[in-house]
Amino acid sequence: MSYAEALLDFRRRKDEHFATGRGPIAGPELQGFTGLHYFDPDEAWQFQVPLLPAAAAQPEVPLQTSTGEIRFMALLGQVEFPASGTQRSTLSVFGPPGETQPARVFIPFRDATSGRETYGAGRYLDAPVEYGAQGPQVTLDFNLAYHPYCAYSEGWTCPLPPAENVLSVAVAAGERLP
Fold it and tell me: What is the pTM of this model?
């Protein structure tokens, strides 16, 4: 199965799950739900990058949420990737407090599509990490970027991207608005 076929299959299964009503879409919005909207698959938005450790040990940092509450997460470090041409972008990477080597990291971000083509408060990326002799490597696949549940219903509390995770470039990959 090609990359694009595997990605489209993942999206199809996600849509099927949401259609059951067990996801964030409920009530009248679920009536007539035919699936989420996405940018076309684009392997150019997939990167294998090193996880650069945080400059100072910060076991827990506060993140604001959509409801004004504070969520605490571990700041694990940053990733840097070529966002457009020669321009490089940096994103802070988070994990559960107390975990120093999680299998997946959490990357909330906003970009130039936020509020126009994607949810205004930003999107999320859950990225796998491999630990090896070269240090931790993160697989960033922005084709898997998704809207937080609070984009669909006010009943959810969602961490907001910190200021350092607001990108000036447009990430035309992943989930988008209808």
Answer: 0.94
